[in-house]
């Protein structure tokens, strides 16, 4: 890396906030995505919007790529460095600037850990619903940049639904403030929405105003087991057809159940094909009613057994079973590739059947789990990156899975983002016109292509 | 994995152990060094990435590599958090061994200190006891008080000055080595449980009262206790500091001292020791003369609190002062290293009629202690800046005793 730039960065941030040593750089060469690896030129830890503005100005003048990164838990390679880039790591900007119970908002810096915000909202009787699998360590900046989902998407939506305003530093160092604390705001284009899910390609988010919602007074968690996946999917359709919107409808397939039980030992049955974790929250009376109805519908649709969590502790344990699914699968094989093909709910059972057939066709091992309520599947390939032949078959299999998802009116990624891993599939979803607009937007915001270049498209 | 013929400890390691880490990042929020620095290289997944780079031949075990490996507290909280089941304890010991093998951190002062501590002091109980007795005399004669009050310490080097107030108080009597219970359980027709107690190294000098209590409680619960003479330090200090050969030698001495065929359990009241002792089988896997006994040993090692629960301990009949409050401190190495988690719940259940005081931030308290007391200047620097959220919580002083036995005395 250019020594002048490094000197300039050290002068700006202080030497201890600029990492250039090989031993440090090696540890920023990856995020949560398997296989991908690229060593950056340096890593910087800015502390303010102004510092980020200066860094981008400098990078823009010198045409040095900048890759923004939070905790590096992404699963699409979105925060993977490009050669010789500056990794702009936001983890030291981790202040919750305020929690405002009067307006039901929180103002945070991008490095705040997702769960910490939820904890800060709790004493006010509020909560922050988006709960990605990595919420214990993922940053809110990363959540916004990837429009993260989570387990509660069906009822509460995703990160986009909670972002009210953003401060963004643009590629040339300009600071854009977009959005307000108002629920209603129709002044001009809603620019903030362009940055949500932009994966660091359009600007660097430096402040976020988030919406909080009142914490539901009651919650009920249930677990239903099935001897066919079809029956589980039918249960979900039937519940929604009865005008019940549970906060969670998660499923695990047989492979995943075994791995989770082996890891978390929560007493899951091992002789079933599918497991459905259902949760409803809200007013205690409504919750009781809905829980009873859901339990009945599950049985009517062929559930082998339905267990209702007796208390919060058991509920948390059951939910944690689902939360650890991905990671538990990882114990089985050296390399775990997690995808997130998503289809309209009504096509779920068909999609799961297709995934199972594809696994047989290419002789690969796939464990599938995911958010049955919102059609977001996580087919997880259990493989070994050193086995090139198998990796090739894995690639063929997920290409077919993505094509099928799109053919069913779905998408290639529900919540992980495009990054590097799904770059070549993006045109399947956007079409040529959509892709063209993507490129024009990028050109307009970042004419020199310094922000996370080579990602998304 | 072969330690003795090793060319490079990390290269010799079965690659799947390194590859098991899928860098998901779930370990980061549990790691005290990451919490303090927010730097990947000071996190478990960062360290594993560096180890992998060494295993792949992309990186030598440099000084910076060694510094990171020694910055790790070894609390193993990451093992509990790790969903993929990475054997971090094994990895970090190998990484330190590799650091020592290439001498990445070697300098005359460090070499001398290591030689003195690992090879001379902690390698022999006789020498350890000699030093303990000298320290005892120093303390008993009031010299320590004099030195502290007179301000003489100001003349000492900075590091010593900072550590002096932490020097432990040596007990009047050390653990009775060679002890064997005369006690026979009169009510029981069945054979007594026979257990061996490892006295430990520092614990033998400064917590021998806790060792005595351990023996007493075991006897009260129908165990025939052996405290074999000839036992040495468990060797964890050596294993954790990259000295595999010394760790093995100490393990062999202990295997010679304890008759694992006769004993039902080997009891230890220090969690860090127990964590190491459970791996004697791995440590001695290349030693056919000891392997069979090492396997038995590893099977039979129990933490005192775990063992009492396992045998269904007798609740003390005596009346406790109604003001007495109980607490249970889950040591890092008990929870994360030994994966023993049931005792706390069991004890709070059995003593639910007592007043309980819950330590805040149960898991990670030891790490927090390290934070303020560690001789590693990087720790103290981070601590002084107030950057850590893991500073020790306030509470009665007695609960900070570093051994779980203190809390299981009943």
Gist of the model:
The complex is a heterodimer of chains A (457) and B (410). Helices cover 36% and strands 21% of the residues of chain A. By secondary structure, chain A is of the alpha+beta class.
Taking pLDDT < 50 over at least 5 consecutive residues as the criterion, the unreliable ranges of chain A are none
What does the main sheet of chain B amount to? 5 strands, mixed
Count of DSSP H/I helices of chain B: 24
CATH structural fold name of the domain at 9-102 in chain B = Fumarate Reductase Iron-sulfur Protein, Chain B, domain 2
How far apart are the termini of chain B?
Answer: 43 Å
CATH topology of the largest domain in chain A: Uridine Diphospho-n-acetylenolpyruvylglucosamine Reductase, domain 3
The SS-based structural class of chain B is mainly alpha
CATH architecture tag of the domain at 9-102 in chain B = Orthogonal Bundle
How many domains is the backbone of chain A divided into? 4
Beta-strand portion of chain A reads: 15-25%
The rounded distance between the terminal residues' Cα atoms of chain A is 26 Å
- Across the major sheet of chain B, the strand order is 1-3-2-4-5
State the helix count of chain A: 15
Mean pLDDT of chain A: 93
Q: Mind telling me the C-alpha Rg of chain A?
A: 22 Å
Helix content of chain B: 40-55%
Give the proportion of residues in helices of chain A.
Answer: 25-40%
- CATH class identity of the domain at 9-102 in chain B: Mainly Alpha
Estimated radius of gyration of chain B: 22 Å
Q: Which class best fits the helix and strand makeup of chain A?
A: alpha+beta
Would you kindly provide a written description of the structure presented here, covering whatever features stand out?
The complex is a heterodimer of chains A (457) and B (410). In chain A, helix 8 packs across helix 10. In chain A, 36% of the residues lie in helices and 21% in strands. Chain A starts with a helix and ends in a 12-residue tail after the last helix. In chain A, strand 5 and strand 6 (105-108) form a beta hairpin. By secondary structure, chain A is of the alpha+beta class. In chain A, the strands form four sheets. A seven-stranded antiparallel β-sheet of chain A has the order 15-12-14-13-17-18-16, sandwiched between helices. The relative contact order of chain A is 0.12. Chain A is globular and about 70 Å long. Chain A folds into four domains: 3-89, Uridine Diphospho-n-acetylenolpyruvylglucosamine Reductase, domain 2, CATH 3.30.43; 96-214, Uridine Diphospho-n-acetylenolpyruvylglucosamine Reductase, domain 3 (2-Layer Sandwich); 218-326, Alpha-Beta Plaits; 333-444, Alpha-Beta Plaits (2-Layer Sandwich). The mean pLDDT of chain A is 93. With 410 residues, chain B is mainly alpha-helical. Among the domains of chain B are: 9-102, Fumarate Reductase Iron-sulfur Protein, Chain B, domain 2 (Orthogonal Bundle); 108-166, no CATH class. Chain B has 24 helices and seven strands. Chain B has a five-stranded mixed β-sheet. In chain B, strands 6-7 form a two-stranded parallel sheet. In chain B, helix 4 (44-55) crosses helix 7. Chain B is globular and about 65 Å long. The model of chain B is unreliable at 1-5, 362-373 and 383-410 (pLDDT under 50).
């Amino acid at each position: 890396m250019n020594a002048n730039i490094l000197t300039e960065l050290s002068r700006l941030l202080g030497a201890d906030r600029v990492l250039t040593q090989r031993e440090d750089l090696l540890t920023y060469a990856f995020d949560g995505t398997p296989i991908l690896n690229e060593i950056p030129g340096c890593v910087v830890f800015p502390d303010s919007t102004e510092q980020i503005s200066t860094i981008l100005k400098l990078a823009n003048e010198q045409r040095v790529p900048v890759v923004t990164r939070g905790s590096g838990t992404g699963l699409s390679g979105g925060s993977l460095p490009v050669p010789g880039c500056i990794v702009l790591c936001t983890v030291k900007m981790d202040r919750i600037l305020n929690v405002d119970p009067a307006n039901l908002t929180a103002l945070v810096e991008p490095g705040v850990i997702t769960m910490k915000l939820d904890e800060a909202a709790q004493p006010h009787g509020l909560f922050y619903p988006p709960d990605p699998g990595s919420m214990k360590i993922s940053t809110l900046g990363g959540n916004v940049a990837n429009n993260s989902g989570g387990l509660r998407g069906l009822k509460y939506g995703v990160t986009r639904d909670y972002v009210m305003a953003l401060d963004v530093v643009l590629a040339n160092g300009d600071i854009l403030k977009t959005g307000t604390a108002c629920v209603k705001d129709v002044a001009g284009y809603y620019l903030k929405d362009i940055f949500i899910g932009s994966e660091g390609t359009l600007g660097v988010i430096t402040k976020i105003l988030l919406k909080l919602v009142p914490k539901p007074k009651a919650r009920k968690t249930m677990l239903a087991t099935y001897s066919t996946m079809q029956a589980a999917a039918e249960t979900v359709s039937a519940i929604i057809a009865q005008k019940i919107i549970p906060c969670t409808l998660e499923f695990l397939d047989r492979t995943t159940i075994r791995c989770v039980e082996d890891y978390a030992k929560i007493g899951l049955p091992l002789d079933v094909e599918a497991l459905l974790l259902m949760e409803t929250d809200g007013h205690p009376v409504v919750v009781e009613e809905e829980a009873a109805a859901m339990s009945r519908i599950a049985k009517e649709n062929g559930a082998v057994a339905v267990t209702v969590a007796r208390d919060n502790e058991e509920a948390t344990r059951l939910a944690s079973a689902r939360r650890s699914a991905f990671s538990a699968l990882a114990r089985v094989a050296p390399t775990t590739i997690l995808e997130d093909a998503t289809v309209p709910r009504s096509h779920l059972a068909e999609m799961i059947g297709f995934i199972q057939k594809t696994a047989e066709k290419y002789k690969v091992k796939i464990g599938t789990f995911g958010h049955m309520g919102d059609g977001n599947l996580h087919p997880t390939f259990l493989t070994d990156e050193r086995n090139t032949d198998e990796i090739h078959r894995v690639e063929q299999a997920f290409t077919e899975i993505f094509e099928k998802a799109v053919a069913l009116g779905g998408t290639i990624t529900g919540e992980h983002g495009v990054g590097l891993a799904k770059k070549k599939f993006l045109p399947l979803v956007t079409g040529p016109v959509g892709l063209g607009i993507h490129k024009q937007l990028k050109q307009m915001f970042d004419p020199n292509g310094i922000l996370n270049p080579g990602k998304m498209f | 994995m072969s330690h003795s013929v090793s060319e490079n400890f990390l290269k010799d390691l079965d690659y799947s152990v390194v590859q098991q880490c899928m860098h998901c990042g779930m370990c980061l929020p549990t790691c005290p060094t990451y919490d303090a620095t927010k730097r990947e290289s000071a996190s478990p997944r960062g360290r594993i990435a560096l180890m992998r780079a060494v295993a792949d031949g992309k990186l030598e075990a440099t000084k910076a590599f060694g510094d990171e490996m020694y910055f790790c507290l070894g609390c193993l909280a990451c093992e509990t958090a790790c969903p993929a089941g990475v054997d971090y304890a094994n990895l970090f010991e190998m990484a330190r061994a590799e650091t020592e093998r290439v001498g990445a951190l070697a300098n005359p002062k460090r070499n001398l200190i290591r030689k003195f501590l690992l090879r001379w002091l902690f390698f022999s109980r006789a020498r350890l006891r000699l030093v303990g007795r000298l320290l005892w005399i120093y303390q008993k004669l009031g010299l320590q008080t004099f030195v502290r009050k007179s301000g003489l310490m100001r003349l000492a080097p900075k590091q010593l000055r900072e550590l002096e107030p932490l020097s432990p108080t040596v007990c009047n009597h050390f653990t009775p080595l060679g002890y064997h219970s005369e006690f026979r359980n009169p009510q029981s027709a069945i054979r007594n449980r026979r257990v061996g107690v490892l006295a430990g190294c520092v614990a033998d000098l400064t917590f021998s009262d806790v060792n005595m209590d351990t023996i007493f409680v075991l006897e009260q619960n129908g165990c025939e206790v052996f405290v074999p003479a000839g036992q040495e330090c468990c060797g964890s200090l050596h294993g954790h500091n990259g000295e595999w050969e010394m760790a093995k030698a100490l393990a062999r001495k202990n295997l010679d001292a304890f008759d694992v065929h006769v004993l039902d359990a080997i009891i230890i009241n220090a969690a860090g020791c127990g964590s190491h002792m459970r791996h004697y089988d791995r440590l001695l896997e290349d030693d056919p003369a000891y392997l069979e006994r090492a396997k038995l040993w590893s099977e039979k090692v129990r933490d005192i609190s775990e063992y009492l629960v396992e045998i269904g301990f007798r609740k003390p009949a005596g009346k406790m002062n109604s003001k007495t409050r109980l607490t249970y401190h889950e040591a890092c190495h008990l929870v994360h290293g030994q994966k023993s988690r049931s005792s706390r719940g069991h004890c709070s259940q059995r003593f639910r009629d007592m007043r309980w005081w819950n330590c805040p931030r149960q898991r990670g308290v030891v790490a927090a202690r390290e934070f303020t007391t560690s001789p590693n200047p990087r720790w103290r620097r981070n601590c002084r800046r107030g950057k850590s959220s893991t500073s020790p919580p306030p509470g009665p002083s007695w609960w900070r005793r570093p051994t779980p036995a203190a809390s299981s005395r009943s």
